[in-house]
Each structure stands twice: as structure tokens, then as C-alpha cells.
Design goal:
CATH class: Alpha Beta
Distance between the termini: 33 Å
Largest sheet: 5 strands, parallel
CATH superfamily: Rhodanese-like domain
Order of helices and strands: EHEHEHEHE
Number of helices: 4
Strand content: 15-25%
Radius of gyration: 12 Å
Number of strands: 5
CATH architecture: 3-Layer(aba) Sandwich
Amino acid sequence: MFSVISINELERMIKAGEDLVFIDLRRAGEYEAFHFPGAVNIPYQLLNQERLMPYRGSLLVFGCEHGGKSMRAARDLNRRGFRTASLGCGIPTRKPD
């Protein structure tokens, strides 16, 4: 089962040094406008199991514009044996103040 997490939970996990990889599912232009430090950009249309194999042992946290694609990615890849979570609220389009 995958979990749905908030931005605050994600920040807590990162500060605690948890073994996770944040996968930003938005298009390259959206990613370049703003992304979380350390995020890996794999647009949803290009997402496949092979691209994620280097991160197989880590918790994969998916994020997208509003949360729908990240939920689908987390669910589908969890069914394939990956440890996954979804950022439920979506990714801000610009750096928060």
C-alpha cells in the first residue's frame, strides 16, 4: 500500500535523512520554473519501471501539478513492488515565500 503525504511530511522525512527520491512528474518547463532541491524530473508520459530501477531500494515520492498523476504513479508502481508515496497536494508552481 502506498501513502499520501503532505509537503510538511516530505520536509520532515528529508530532514530526518530518510532514504527517499522525489520524482517530479511535471513537464520539463514546469520543473525548471520551480522544483524541490534534489528532485528527479521524469515527466509522467515518460515514466516506466526501467527508469526507476536505479532508485529501487528507496522510497519513491511522486509529485505532479495537482496530485492525480502522482497518485496513479504511486499506486501502479507500488503494485509492481516499489515502495511509494504521493505528494497529495501537488507541487507549487513557484517557490513558496
